[in-house]
Amino acid sequence: MLLYIDPGTGSMLFAILIGILGTAGYLLRNVFMKLRFLFSGGAKEKNAIQDRIPYAVFSDHKRYWSTFKPICDEFERRGEPLVFMTASEDDPALQEHYEHVKCSFIGEGNHAFAKLNFLKADILLSTTPGLDVYQWKRSRDVRWYVHVLHMANDPTTYRMFGLDYYDALMLSGEYQVRQQRALEEKRGLPAKEIVLTGVPYLDQLKKRLDEAEPLPEHPVTILLAPSWGKSSLFGRFEGKIIDAALATGYHVIIRPHPQSFTAEKELMDRLMAAYPESEQLEWNRDNDNFEVLRRSDIMISDFSGVIFDFCLIFGKPVICADTSFDKSPYDAWWLDEELWTFETLPKIGRPLTEDRLDSLKELVDDTLGSAMVQDAIEQARKETWAHPGKAASRIADYMIGKRNELAQEKPAQTPETEKKE
């Protein structure tokens, strides 16, 4: 009989294995360096910093290329060397032809994390939460870890301890700073460096929208765009919300969160079989969501970050299902104040409760014609999107400045410096 190991136990065992291998590798490398120094007759070794990657970026999925492309473009424009590492073999980054930015596939899942755990770099930028919590451990040879947002709302809706072990955070709103400082105080963590940079992918989306051709005439289109998990739109309503959307008579696009096809595969298979594509209904799984957002007139969602892409860039309203969000798995559980997301959602759209499913058409029509909603969308832009159009340059400024600062610090001990002392 085959042994079964649940994902949590497997993650823990992998973390233990990586810790053992990392410690052993570090000790063996130090022994090797000392032996090489002795047998070289005391010849000067190259400084270890010369072997480091100066600037590295890690992306755990190709869907985040819209976040990283503006940053890579900025480093390329400045002629600064950067290594972009992706866990997606078909990441669009691999099709780029940069001179100063090197893009490479480093394997999927644990294969990617295993390489990252032994990485040598001065600065590593990523949008992946959970550093030093599960499989992805801080490498002894990475000097500074920087997190950049891939959403324009509360980063405390990451799973527990999502950002605790980063050194710096690139955020986009003052409320996000308050939340992170509150978490640090409650958990007794050292204060991270926090910079308000804005959101690179929002800048990219806005530029694309400004340059896009006008849309042709089309029927009113509803986009169902849930997050994933028990608190999500499908987690609570399942097919009822699809029935209600179809009953409006409007065109319906369903775009589930990509994670749903992994974490909720049985639910997705069941819904896609029960609601096949038709003239009125389409399922969308495009890696790039730009066109589907542009084609839609109103969104029905829950607490997904795509809500703010839709409102902030396209200026379109949302209907947000009352899904009784369970904060217990998330960093938000530690906070006393209401999340900015849930304070803002009722202002930029209309709430949807189960008893209003039968009158969804009236709710859609009322929301589409609301001037108050448009005013609320403009206020949300001011609160959660700092420095529009400047995120990539501000992030590059920070990374380059931080590396220069680190270069002024005392370098790590080497066999040569140990002997001199």
If you had to describe this structure to a student in words, what would you say it looks like?
The chain has helices at residues 7-39, 65-78, 109-116, 174-187, 200-211, 233-237, 240-247, 260-263, 265-274, 290-295, 306-314, 340-344, 360-368, 371-384, 391-407, 415-420; strands at 53-59, 82-86, 101-105, 121-126, 142-148, 168-171, 193-196, 221-224, 251-254, 281-283, 298-301, 318-321, 349-352. Mean pLDDT is 86; it is low at 1-12, 29-49 and 413-421. With 421 residues, it is an alpha/beta fold. A seven-stranded parallel sheet has the order 3-2-1-4-5-6-7. A six-stranded parallel sheet has the order 10-9-8-11-12-13, sandwiched between helices. Helix 2 packs across helix 15 (391-407). The chain folds into two domains: 47-199 and 389-411, Rossmann fold; 205-384, Glycogen Phosphorylase B (Rossmann fold, 3-Layer(aba) Sandwich), CATH 3.40.50.2000. The chain is globular, with a radius of gyration of 24 Å.
Q: How large is the count of helical segments?
A: 16
Mean pLDDT: 86
Q: Give the name of the CATH superfamily of the largest domain.
A: Glycogen Phosphorylase B
Shape: globular
Overall SS class:
alpha/beta
Return Rg in Å.
24 Å
- What gap, in angstroms, lies between the N and C termini? 59 Å
How many individual β-strands?
13
CATH architecture annotation of the largest domain: 3-Layer(aba) Sandwich
The CATH C-level class name of the largest domain: Alpha Beta
